[in-house]
Design brief:
The structure holds two protein chains of two kinds. By secondary structure, chain A is an all-beta fold. In chain A, strands 2, 4, 5, 6, 9, 10 and 11 form a seven-stranded mixed beta sheet that branches. In chain A, a hairpin with an 8-residue loop joins strand 9 and strand 10. Chain A is globular, with a radius of gyration of 13 Å. Chain B has no helices and eleven strands. The chains are: A mainly beta, B mainly beta.
Chain lengths: 113, 113
């Protein structure tokens, strides 16, 4: 039981390049989330998927797209990376949205030069 | 504007003492509040959830209080140990449906032997 896995662990991009961050969970959770964490800013929600087939914007969705590929997988895409997207990205899942604990992955450290 | 405030300065305490961390919020009406622990380079780990109609919640050496009048939650670790050293994050539901969590910036706790 791996919990929430994320790939890659580290990535360096040049401005304008694109990439997809992958996330998978093996807990049969309905809901999945993408956060970014910046020093002094705390975790900020980018997008979430309450259930398979649905996605919704969070606090900071601009510059990102998501795909809920199936119940297990939720990917985050940067179409044209910018230095402001340098951050640590965390994927999380929970059995439902709302008052349920979230399980976080180990994070992806992304640097955009 | 909406804010969640945690003391950004590190809290240093001696082993065996009780650590008390504060989470204050402004212009939110949360139905619940959660506390997470985050170690360097890792994703947050869920600790406790407390609902608006609960004054206090305990789990082993951890205790959380929730005062909706003061708009404050206190997180206590009794008989603290060096292994409790980490950053502690509070989070509350940020939308009326309760689907999205908003996190505070976290407080770093250092327990000295």
């Amino acid at each position: 039981n791996a919990g929430v896995t994320q790939t890659p662990k580290f990535q360096v991009l040049k401005t304008g390049q694109s990439m997809t961050l992958q996330c998978a969970q093996d807990m049969n959770h309905n809901s999945m989330y993408w956060y970014r964490q910046d020093p002094g800013m705390g975790l900020r929600l980018i997008y979430y998927s309450a259930s398979e087939g649905t996605t919704d914007k969070g606090e900071v969705p601009n510059g990102y797209n998501v795909s809920r590929l199936n119940k297990r997988e939720f990917s985050l895409r940067l179409e044209s990376a910018a230095p402001s997207q340098t951050s640590v990205y965390f994927c999380a899942s929970s059995s439902q949205t709302g008052a349920y604990e979230q399980y976080f992955g180990p994070g992806t450290r992304l640097t955009v030069t | 504007s909406q804010k969640i405030e945690q003391n950004s300065e590190a809290l240093n305490i001696q082993e065996g003492k009780t650590a008390t961390l504060t989470c204050n919020y402004t212009n939110y009406s949360p139905a619940y509040l959660q506390w997470y622990r985050q170690d360097p380079g890792r994703g947050p780990v869920f600790l406790l959830l407390i609902r608006e109609n609960e004054k206090e919640k305990r789990k082993e050496r951890l205790k959380v209080t929730f005062d909706t009048t003061l708009k404050q939650s206190l997180f206590h670790i009794t008989a603290s140990q060096p292994a409790d050293s980490a950053t502690y994050l509070c989070a509350l539901d940020a939308d009326s449906a309760g689907n999205m969590l908003t996190f505070g910036g976290g407080t770093r706790l250092m327990v000295k032997p």
